[in-house]
Amino acid sequence: MNLEPKPELEAFRQEVAEFLDTAPTDVIREAGRKTTSVFAPFDATMAWQKILNGKGWAAPEWPVEHGGTGWSAEERFVFAEEYCKRNLPPLLPNCLKMIGPLIIDLGTEEQKARYLPRILAGDDYWTQGYSEPEAGSDLASLTCSAVADGDDYIINGSKTWTTLAHRANRMFMLVRTSSEGRKQQGITFLLLDRVDYPGMEIRPIVGLDGFPEQCEVFFDDVRVPQSGRVGAENEGWTVAKHLLKYERGSSSQAPWLYRFVRMIREAAATRTSPFGGTLAQDPVFQRELGELEADVASVEAVEKLAVSGHPLAHDLAFPSFNKTVGTELIQRLTSLMARVSGLEGLSLQLQALTVGGGTAPLGDGFDLIAMPYYLNSRAASIYAGTNEVQRDLIARSLMSR
Ligand SMILES: Cc1cc2nc3c(=O)[nH]c(=O)nc-3n(C[C@H](O)[C@H](O)[C@H](O)COP(=O)(O)OP(=O)(O)OC[C@H]3O[C@@H](n4cnc5c(N)ncnc54)[C@H](O)[C@@H]3O)c2cc1C
């Protein structure tokens, strides 16, 4: 398998580079520099999505007939590489990478026509209402109920960890519509047109990094139309599993991981080692960053195999493998970031981190983001299914061969 750069991709790389060098506004670049989570600063990132959509590049993974680019997997990888090199804010994943592809695969024609163009254009933001206080890894235990009433459902219960629900205008969620049979059998998948239905309340949760990124959502006799259902009533478990494949599996983590390596290397060149010289010259530091970079290179090799058509891309365990390895590397990389920043990074500078806030940071841009990134990324091995559960899935897939 040849993993060398292909000359025929170079013209494409040039075209992408030229656009990404010129299209983003200063505010969008600032949002990229101030990204400290998978969820980049909301307003600037949605504005950037609109610009990308104007070029037809908001959703490279989508089929062409729904607004995708028609790029090959290798072209998509090149795009991700050029994107991450420029430190641009990652587009928010819930819409383009999760609910959009799900509606394309399983939605009705009406749902496709109604939602897909607005998702692409960044006009809607969808929050994900799966988890509940007593239903996380064991999602099938969920109790938030929906009872049919005429053309509507009436929802009661609560959801938790619903990321950016306070910024969303729509929500996709799982509800219990039956308690008969196995607990997986009584679940239904719903698209909610609004997050301000009467009886619905959203309460933000402030995270370790000081930002309210997640929320709790409460439902008290909330009436929603049944036309928002995806799939049949009580068959939402299959729909939810279909979506998880998109949530966990991304074929281009390496470009994103290299972005951390570059940030750390640049910062280390400007800091002094306690043993003399710069930190970048320190052999202990070099070894640690070298080991991390070697692990990122391994991820890159696997991902390049996958995009060049290797069967592993279709292996059931691949999304779980990708999620586990990628999130653990992010945690190791952000841990090194926090240590490189040291005392300079100890103060959480929420005002300076606000895009367009105009407050200058103490220290430099690296010190500004190192600690919040470290703190935020502690959750990476929990969300989208904990890494322990992913390891179970990988083992089950391997042992069933
Ligand atoms: C930052 C963040 C953002 C999130 N965003 C969203 C969102 O937008 N929408 C949404 O619906 N949910 C979201 N979640 C919820 C997330 O999916 C759950 O936290 C996750 O599934 C784990 O569930 P839990 O927190 O209930 O932990 P539990 O399921 O209670 O797990 C506790 C511990 O037990 C372990 N464990 C549980 N079962 C097994 C098993 N079978 N084998 C081995 N170990 C096991 C777990 O790995 C973990 O270490 C988010 C969570 C976080 C932290």
Automatic annotation (TrEMBL):
Respond yes or no to whether keyword DNA damage is given for this record: no
Chain ranges of the Acyl-CoA oxidase/dehydrogenase middle domain: 129-222
**Pfam (any one):** Acyl-CoA_dh_N
Task: Enumerate the UniProt keywords alphabetically.
Answer: FAD, Flavoprotein, Oxidoreductase
Record GO terms (molecular function): flavin adenine dinucleotide binding; oxidoreductase activity, acting on the CH-CH group of donors
Any one annotated GO CC term = plasma membrane
Highest taxon listed in the record's lineage: Bacteria
Q: Which cofactor does it need?
A: FAD
Q: Where is the Acyl-CoA dehydrogenase/oxidase N-terminal domain?
A: 7-123
Among Gene3D superfamilies, the record links this protein to: Acyl-CoA dehydrogenase/oxidase, N-terminal domain, Butyryl-CoA Dehydrogenase, subunit A, domain 2, Butyryl-CoA Dehydrogenase, subunit A, domain 3
Q: Where is the Acyl-CoA dehydrogenase/oxidase C-terminal domain?
A: 234-398
Q: Which family does it belong to?
A: Belongs to the acyl-CoA dehydrogenase family.
Cite the PANTHER family for this sequence: ACYL-COA DEHYDROGENASE, ACYL-COA DEHYDROGENASE FADE29
UniProt name for this protein: Alkylation response protein AidB-like acyl-CoA dehydrogenase
Native source organism of the sequence: Actinocorallia herbida
